[in-house]
Amino acid sequence: MDVLEKALKRAFINKDESSETLNPKFIVNNPEKNDYLLTTLQNDFRQCRTFFISVAFITQSGLNAIKAQLADLDKAGISGKILTSTYLGFNNPDVFNSLLQIPNVEVRISEKLGFHSKGYLFDMGEYQSFIIGSSNLTMAALKQNYEWNVKLTSYDNGEMISTIQEHLLSEWQEAKPLTIEWIDTFKKSYQPIVTSRMLKETPEMIVESDALYITPNKMQRLALDSLVALRETKAKKGLVVSATGTGKTYLAALDVLAFKPKRMLFIVHREQILTKAMESFKKIIGGPENDYGILSGSTKNLEAKYLFATNIMVAKDDYQELLGKEAFDYILIDEVHKAGSETYRKIIDFFEPEFLLGMTATPERTDGFNIFELFDYNVAYEIRLQEALEEDLLCPFHYFGVTDYEKEGLLINETTDLKYLATQERVNFLINKIKYYGCSGNDAKGLVFCSRKEEAKELSRLFNERGIPSSYLSGDHSSDFRESEVERLENGDIHYIFTIDIFNEGIDIPKVNQIIMLRNTESSIIFIQQLGRGLRKDESKEFVTVIDFIGNYKNNYMIPMALSGDHSRNKNNLRRDTIDATYISGLSAINFEEIAKDRIFTSIDQVKMDSMAELKKSFITLKNRLNRIPYLLDFEKFGSVDPLVIIGKEKIYYQFLAKLGETEGTISEAEMLALKFVSIEFLSGLRPHELLVLNFFFETKEVSITLEEVKQLFLNLDVPYTEDIFESMLKVLDLSFYETVTRRGYQASQLFEVTDTKIEATEQLQQFWQNPYFNKLMIDVIQTGLEKTKQYEVTEPLGLYKKYRRKDVLRLLNMDFKQNEQGIGGYTFSNNHFAIFVTLDKGKDFNASLIAYEDEFLNESTFRWFTKSPRTIDSPEVQVLKNPENWKIHLFIKRKYNKKDNETDFYYMGEMSPIQKTIEQKQKPTNDGKYKNIVEMDFSLVTPVESNMYEFLTKVIEE
């Protein structure tokens, strides 16, 4: 039966029908599962040969969501059409101007009364794909709104697609071409019609209808409660970590209002911030005007009840003497990450307030200073970028990772000479890209971060020459001059300020609607600081455009790390974060052009993610925060390095601590082996059962527990199990599950013996309990493993796209483990489970196999596979696959991008069934010139591979 016939039969006649591809799809935005119409659209754009969009409503943010894909299509010489309208006055002139910037899209305007279509058609070459439903080309419709859409496929001569195409062609011919002249005419008569049917995309602003009463947002309410609770413990200091733009100043004012101090001191490092902060406090607290005052180089209101001062002034001996140690019962330091300087330390050491509050977006410092120690490790509240986006506290952003200028094969990198950074050709290239990706309202107010002063200065000059008013700022400029240039930017007198690092922090420019990055990503902290310059909500913008020009930089791997907040240092996690950016919340979006994506992959390939130097940095950062030695559970809970990365390198955490000189006790060789067993086998938390039994013994120090009591323990904890799982757990705990070599390796420190009625602690384990430090290390591993179990569904032994080692699969499915993992090789079968393990793209130099296997995905639903050699149709495994009734066949894929990758985990792709007609015995050449029998077959996956995962697994990276 033809593949499309199968797909239609599955969709409309029998859902149990096997179908390999082209399945109809019902699409509903599901933010909880990171499943969006946007993802489907973006992937169809990547695969199409041409496209036709017919939608009534388009917003700039909706258009931005597909611009990177359209840019890649343009490079490939592929173009398409967009048909839209002026219905209800929804589409404003800005979006029509943005449409004109896209070179490979022809746009026409329908004048049909009540034009309200929503359809996306893609010519895929062998077939046509179309999505029809309720979604316009707006970011809300593509990612957030509750919309219904159906995706169907058709061959060219299908009646439905023919009817749609004929109708669109007719509508297209009647519509007017979009031109500059048309837009100019449209602007003169444009009047938006606001109705309940319009789609509102403007981010919510803080409502201040009553200047003396501002309702705190969700973040502020939680932070205020936490500060009250902290002070109830008699704490004298507290730290609030809050992403830029989330309302820290209002939060501080609300806390001061609750505290009711006799006098308050607000300290910040820049005089220009003081006035804005004071105005915010007035709105919250109210009271007489003379209650508020400023202490700065130009103003000295020392008697004010609420005093706003620069750190420079408050640190001076004269003013400290005038004010006195106990002048203020509440002191607040804004941008407190700067408090490592001598002036701040002098202030903190001098004054004796009842409470000291510090606020910052970036407490982790690159200079080694420990902010957490300064505030007695009292973190009252913390909200980072991802959480702030989820809570709709920030302006949505559209990040574009784009390719930087390249000439004759030469790429921009860290050492590129200035003369190449500021050529006329590169300036043309930059301007074209900036215009293409645009900004909210098409009236740019942008910050451009450069790699060095000379580049910023020269690019500013060249932009001015091109009629784009710009300025250049560096640390050499005075504060007054910087302020005047910022004011010019906000007023629209200039469009861009080129700078290096002076705007990383401590500057508030709400009207910034474009961030341009022309430099290497030095750290994820700096990246987020620079991104944050545009995230404050403002009525002048609906979103912020972030254009990151990605050159050939060694640190490109930090880009997905910063955007996702994933500091696990797992390479494949970062690769997935680059391809699949659905982790970003709300109406924000992340897109990479293909070449930029490849440059990030190259950087990930080359960097050593688990070097001791990098792991030590993460250790020190966490130690500074906790004021103690961090353990594996701390790394897990604080989203730092994945504990599995540390264990993968050192086998047990004790050895890692020993290398750093940070051990807090000693353990014996036998205890090390016991820790190795639990760390290697259970830390991943794939299922909780073994860990819960371990936890019981280490908490109670009981020498035995009956099997019935274990079952009751699971029931009490609401942990489901089957007899298969229970049997498997017992085999693992007494080591009988493991193949001979592995079992012998662990036996010297065996922890348990299992009888028909109970689990008993061995004499060795009872001896181990006498060492408190061993107990602490072991409980840490157990608790970390239990924390990790939250990532898995307990009711299912395997989770789709989760990662497993071969022996994990055997354990979870209660299969036989009769040979070591290397011996298992490509597949094993027992207990009615057939597990197939495939490494894709083994690298050019792969020679570990006698035969070159060509296992591959044919499409998202079909996988081609080869047995080991020599095998024939009559071989036992082939007979199982020819008669698969009562067998479950599982596919596990590992992607090896280069020979330096040391990934041991496979992604679970779900169950699949062999396509019987494809099972065929063949002969394949060996690398010694001979031929051996082998059996080839195709499988149909029960669940087609999600498009982003498919791209991740099949993506070809040029070396």
TrEMBL record:
The keyword Hydrolase applies. GO terms for cellular component: cytosol. PROSITE patterns: HELICASE_ATP_BIND_1, HELICASE_CTER. SUPFAM superfamilies: P-loop containing nucleoside triphosphate hydrolases (SSF52540), Phospholipase D/nuclease (SSF56024). It comes from Vagococcus carniphilus. Pfam families: DUF3427, DUF8090, Helicase_C, PLDc_2, ResIII. Gene3D superfamilies: Endonuclease Chain A, P-loop containing nucleotide triphosphate hydrolases. GO terms for molecular function: ATP binding; DNA binding; endonuclease activity; hydrolase activity. Residues 433-596 form the Helicase C-terminal domain. This is NgoFVII family restriction endonuclease. It comes from the Bacteria. InterPro entries: DUF3427, DUF8090, Helicase/UvrB_N, Helicase_ATP-bd, Helicase_C-like, Helicase_Restrict-Modif_Enz, P-loop_NTPase, PLD-like_dom. Residues 229-381 form the Helicase ATP-binding domain. The keyword Metal-binding does not apply. Keywords: Endonuclease, Hydrolase, Nuclease.
